[in-house]
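This entry is listed below:
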Amino acid sequence: MIASGSGRPRIPQPPETVSALRQAVAQVAPASLPAFTRELDKAADLARHGSDLSPLRRFTAQWAIFVQINRDPGTARRFRELEDLAESGDATQARHAAAELGRMLDDARASVAGNQS
């Protein structure tokens, strides 16, 4: 579980439902709500046209990981710093940043999966 500087996450990790994730995004990263809505609309359209729930499952999994990272302000800040380095740093910095981002995403994915059991 990713924790805040106080040792506790700002909010509990929500269940992987659209409504619970929307509420969590509103709390931890309200500026991301428009992206959440756009991506939800796209996933719903894909699911409807393909008669397949996979796009919605991918959507909820992606946003659960987003919330897991953003529940802790320090982790969220470091993630954004690494994204910036990966895009604007020199090649060596970009590789190191990408590797650390990958580890952070793996940790968040494992935490989310652990919360489902």
About this structure: The chain has five helices and no strands.
